[in-house]
Write a structure and sequence with these properties.
This protein is an alpha+beta fold. The protein folds into two domains: 75 residues, no CATH class; 205 residues, 2-Layer Sandwich (Bacterial polysaccharide co-polymerase-like). Helix content is 65%, strand content 12%. Helix 6 packs across helix 8 and helix 9 runs antiparallel to helix 10. The longest helix is centred in the middle third of the chain and has 40 residues. The two termini are 39 Å apart.
């Protein structure tokens, strides 16, 4: 009995819904048109944001160490030489690019707080309107809403995108982030190599065992080669494959006008149904 009644009740429900929409098509249709139109108009009012992307490949820092270094694991650890492979260096480089410390220094170097919080900044008086935003707030906003980093695990190619209201500034920030992170990692790598070489020189002078001296010299030769590469190679940690360029004025990342129209129309549909339902119940109350 219950199974046979289910198709009938479902059919009646669909018929009731169809009759409801047919009776209130004017109200619901007007609500959809008005809300969809208002949402679309709002999308033209919202300040457009553009996306500038730079594509790069983590270069892994200096070249890998020779096989003789593996035989001197303890010595290498004391000297501060990283035995990790290129993959680990690449991950470390990407984490540095994402890090709050580097982002904080980038914002301070380029004085970006007045740009990130332009509505709170009085450009004419060169002062904040009310309480100024903190650097920590700027780092959070830049990391969450301005900079995007996506890595293709299969190819190892990384895309850094800057989404901002100024097309030229977006491209400039994207390229400068990679260049400045690469320069900072280069200086850090050279400093580590300098310390390693200094230690190996001291170790070779103190030991009298020929085998250890020979191995130390081979390790030192590898470190010197890495130092030369670090000082002379154009790209140290990040090899840029496609630099960022200002997007075309028509290439707006947001607002998405079609999405505004869809969401506005959906809200209009819901609002129209609510209004039509309330009007239907009014006569029964009198």
């Amino acid at each position: 009995m219950n199974d046979s009644s289910e198709p009938v009740s479902t059919e009646l429900s669909l018929v009731a819904i169809w009759r409801f929409f047919r009776r209130n098509i004017a109200i619901i249709g007007a609500s959809i048109v008005v809300c969809g139109g208002l949402a679309t108009a709002l999308s033209f009012y919202v300040t457009p944001r553009y996306r500038a992307e730079v594509t790069f490949s983590p270069a892994g820092g200096s070249g890998g160490l020779s096989g003789d270094l593996a035989n001197l694991g303890g010595l290498a650890a004391i000297a501060g030489i990283n035995l990790g492979g290129v993959g680990k260096k690449s991950e470390e480089a990407l984490e540095y690019l994402r890090s709050g410390g580097f982002t904080r220094e980038f914002i301070k170097r380029h004085n970006l707080l007045p740009v990130l919080y332009a509505r709170k900044w009085d450009a004419a008086r060169q002062q904040w309107k009310g309480e100024p935003p903190t650097l920590a707030e700027g780092v959070k906003r830049f990391s969450n809403k301005v900079r995007q980093i996506a890595e293709d695990r299969r190819t190892g190619i990384v895309t850094l995108a800057i989404v901002w209201t100024d097309r030229d500034m977006a491209a400039e920030w994207a390229n400068e982030l990679i260049a400045e992170a690469d320069a900072a990692l280069r200086q850090r790598g050279i400093a580590e190599l300098d310390r390693s070489i200094a230690y190996l020189k001291a170790e070779s002078a103190e030991t009298s065992t020929f085998e250890i001296q020979s191995a130390v010299f081979k390790v030192m030769e590898s470190e010197l080669k890495d130092q030369m590469v670090a000082r002379t190679r154009d790209s140290y940690a990040f090899k840029v494959l496609d630099p960022a360029v200002p997007p075309d004025p028509k290439e707006v990342d947001s607002p998405n006008k079609v999405m505004y129209l869809v969401l506005g129309s959906g809200f209009g549909l819901l609002l129209g149904i609510i209004v039509a339902s309330s009007r239907k119940r009014e006569p029964s109350r009198t």
